[in-house]
Amino acid sequence: MKNIKIKHSIYFIIICFMCFGCKSKQISHHNTIPQKTAEEMVMTIIQNQPQFSSMNISKMDINLTWKNHNFSCKGSLKIQKDSLLSLSIQPFLGIEAYRAKFYPDKFILIDKMNRKYTENNYDFLKYKFGITMDFFTLQAICSNQLFCLDNTTIRPQLFSVQQNNHDTLIMGYNLQDISQQFKITGNHQITEADISYGNARFTTKYTEHAKQANWCFPQHAEAYLTWQEDVLSIDLKINKITFNQPLDFPEFSPNRYQKVTFSDLLP
Length: 267
What we know:
alpha+beta; outer membrane lipoprotein receptor (LolB), chain A; single chain
């Protein structure tokens, strides 16, 4: 029974990541936001967001809450920009039990304990869960950056300023059926990203921004997935992060695992 609960918890952690460092001085968010057009603000935000070729969150604490159940584990996250995102889940003494590898055209979920894996493209997520998601949106959510669900590049002219409260700006990007909102501080940092679609809503909140190299990066993130009346929350605490360093991605050999369907791996 305990293993079943752990497996279901891992399942929800991976779903949250599909939809989404060292301690240093935190940055104040109380600067006044200047009056600019939406297009000018988008360009300024892009200039201030993390610019990197690789990102390695080698140590993070993950806490999941769903229907009064809590599950905590260790994890790590590696990104080779625009080519690969790898999530490792370590529920037992730092031992990797699950790995998720996301590529621009597909994703692979690996159950290392039971030697099974499943491989799908991103259209499967919309079919299975009604979630519109792609690699570049996932990469942006994990790296505290702007994104457009319908395009791999940012189109500043399609954003709008929806609210400006002196030190907090809310910008919107609306598609036909999906609404995107970003909350921006006076330091042009993204502190919240929100996606709404029908009865589903996915919100990511970024806090504790700290200086990392030449930019600021959140040391804490909270994600909430609301689906009809259910709410799943995941809390991420970054303990160690580095940028622009060579990454080592463990090789995955499919011939050593049994290929199964998504439902067989994560029922």
